[in-house]
Amino acid sequence: MVNLADLHASEGEDPTTLAEQATSLVDNGRWTLCNDGKGLERGFRFKTFKAAWDFMNTVAAECKKQKHHPEWTNVYNKTHIRWTTHNPLGLSSKDTAMARFCDDAGEQGGEVVVEGKGDWESGVETGRLEAGDCCSGGGNKGV
Length: 143
Ligand SMILES: C[C@H](O)[C@H](O)[C@H]1CNC2=NC(N)=NC(=O)C2=N1
Prior knowledge:
The chain is α+β, with helices and mostly antiparallel strands.
């Protein structure tokens, strides 16, 4: 459950509603609340680079519609997405709506589900991998 106290809601949002939406994404899904409470993040894994890229294109088209944009990275067949609102700073209902959209797009785009949360480590953010590891070694652990 996402506690109100851990959530940094964007100004103008109803924190209670937002906490409910975030709780649903975290408890019934694969999202985690960022440590600063201002964002939701999760990784997506696909069979191929093309599938990952197609997924990103689908999300990008929705971003254009919603005028809301992700912080994301891609390494080979994986995409890591963080939804946070830059202005006003914090988590907003746009973020929770886009997170939901990504869940659906991932499912429809052939997402490869790996059990457990937080196992997506491309090395882009952790810096633990070396060049090439994304497709040969640790980056695909568990697939
Ligand atoms: C004018 C335009 O709607 C804003 O600049 C949008 C664009 N996309 C955005 N995306 C995100 N994630 N946060 C924002 O505050 C934001 N602002």
